[in-house]
């Protein structure tokens, strides 16, 4: 018991620099913005995506050369800082896939990245805006907007506005990068290995990519 207590105290001390503040609405919001730099560290994803938490998370930047971030509830860019935290492996693979995609499609618009997890993980339901998320609790999930046919850096809102060729390329790259699941909308006509690429309601405007935890699958 003493060893468990000591470990708990150590985790709390290590997490102190990224402790979240609370807004008047009770929504966690981190005080600092990472900018273009990323403060890398080894993250720990605990529990399941729909019942878990995140230790030593890494904040995804608000925008970069190959990507922008999107706030679903506010329908604007960039996404708020407290909605952009993930496992370091998740963020490394996400950045690599996006960079390779843009290199292969030089005329493509920047990729839109929406929600990951909150600074310490945990519930990310409707109280945090919009439809909320049943998962996104331990830093292994990320929402990625489908590229639009008109190239605009906006949420496509519906499947008719997506560029299916570019969207399929992104899906294929996430599968090749070792994603556990890629959830796509039923009207998108996007395909892939059935055990990985699965249709899910309310995903006609974005794909939901889930990666393996470090202890499972393979380390990216």
What is the mean predicted local confidence, pLDDT?
85
* Radius of gyration (Å): 17 Å
Q: What characterizes the major β-sheet?
A: 4 strands, mixed
Helix content: 10-25%
Output the number of helix runs. Answer: 3
* Strand residue content: 15-25%
Uncertain spans, ≥5 residues at pLDDT below 50?
1-35, 216-220
One letter per element, helices H and strands E, the order comes to HEEEEEEEHEEHEEE
> Strand order within the widest sheet?
9-12-10-11
Number of strands: 12
Structural class, judged by helices and strands? alpha+beta
Choose one word for the global shape: globular
Question: Could you tell me how far the N terminus lies from the C terminus, measured between alpha carbons in angstroms?
Answer: 34 Å
Task: Write structural notes for this entry.
It is a single chain. It contains 3 helices and 12 strands; from the N terminus they run αβββββββαββαβββ. α2 crosses α3 (164-176). The strands form 5 sheets. A 4-stranded mixed sheet has the order 9-12-10-11, covered by helices on one side. It has a two-stranded antiparallel ribbon with strand order 1-2. The longest helix is centred in the middle third of the chain and has 17 residues, at 88-104. With 220 residues, it is an alpha+beta fold. The radius of gyration is 17 Å and the shape is globular. 20% of the residues lie in helices and 19% in strands. β3 and β4 (51-55) form a beta hairpin.
How is the secondary structure organized here?
Layout: H1 2-15, E1 21-22, E2 28-29, E3 44-48, E4 51-55, E5 58-59, E6 67-69, E7 85-86, H2 88-104, E8 111-113, E9 141-145, H3 164-176, E10 181-184, E11 197-199, E12 206-210
Parallel strand pairs: 6-8, 10-11
Antiparallel strand pairs: 1-2, 3-4, 5-7, 9-12, 10-12
Helix pairs in contact: 2-3
């Amino acid at each position: 018991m003493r060893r468990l207590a000591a470990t708990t105290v150590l985790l709390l001390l290590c997490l102190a620099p990224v402790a979240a503040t609370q807004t008047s609405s009770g929504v966690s919001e981190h005080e600092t913005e990472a900018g273009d730099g990323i403060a890398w560290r080894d993250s720990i994803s605990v529990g399941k995506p729909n019942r878990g938490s995140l230790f030593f998370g890494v904040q995804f930047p608000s925008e970069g050369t190959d990507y922008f971030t999107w706030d679903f509830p506010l329908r604007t860019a960039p996404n708020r800082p407290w909605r952009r935290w993930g496992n370091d492996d998740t963020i490394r693979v996400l950045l690599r896939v996006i960079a390779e995609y843009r290199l292969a499609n030089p005329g493509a618009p920047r990729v839109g990245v929406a929600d990951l997890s909150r600074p310490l993980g945990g519930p990310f339901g409707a109280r945090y805006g919009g439809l909320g998320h049943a998962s996104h609790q331990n830093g292994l999930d990320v929402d990625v907007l489908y590229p639009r046919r008109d190239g605009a850096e906006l949420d496509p809102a519906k499947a008719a506005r997506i560029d299916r060729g570019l969207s399929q390329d992104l899906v294929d790259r996430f599968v090749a990068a070792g994603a556990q699941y890629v959830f796509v909308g039923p009207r998108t006509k996007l395909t892939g290995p059935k055990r990985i690429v699965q249709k899910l309601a309310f995903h006609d405007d974005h794909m939901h990519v889930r990666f393996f935890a470090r202890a499972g699958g393979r380390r990216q």
